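User: Can you write out an input/output pair for a complex, sequences first and structure second?

Assistant: Here is one pair. Inputs:
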Amino acid sequence: GAVVSQHPSRVICKSGTSVKIECRSLDFQATTMFWYRQFPKQSLMLMATSNEGSKATYEQGVEKDKFLINHASLTLSTLTVTSAHPEDSSFYICSALTSGRAQYNEQFFGPGTRLTVL
Amino acid sequence: AQTVTQSQPEMSVQEAETVTLSCTYDTSESNYYLFWYKQPPSRQMILVIRQEAYKQQNATENRFSVNFQKAAKSFSLKISDSQLGDTAMYFCAFMKLTLDRGSTLGRLYFGRGTQLTVWP
């Protein structure tokens, strides 16, 4: 099956700093990538959708200046949490959708990144 | 708007027994996909099973099968011969296949999840 990686898997940072999380599709080209946030024992909350070469579409209530998303290539999307604060601490998950597999419309998920802001 | 409801926050089952997880959804779409995802303690999302709405036959993947009732908008997951490794959070998800203003093809709508514990 298709593989999606995320880096880093775990990051701890000080309040006020920025953190970048990478999401890569390893063996396929991802025309669309999704970024989710998950709180403990809760469901995945879609933050934004990014399409290669265009601006991300953010869900209502998600600050686009806080969570910067760049989908510069068909295999890489990045999420940057700017000026992180303790309330940004969470588990962030990306997923990828490929045009090649569009007929199946399956999202392939990364392993997630645990962000802790001190 | 699409909504997915999982009414069982927690379920438990003894090893080798059968358990059924419930899921209902609300949509005005006629063509869509439904999924069950598993999230074990590692938190990696794993696709368990997929159902295309246009198919009347219920999907089956080894010990996992679904009961898809399109008119009732119900999509339950049955796990047979439960194993300890089945312990995980299970999410039901809906994917619409048509584009409309502001929507994205391939977007998933998740339920709140059901924590399944399989005990020896």
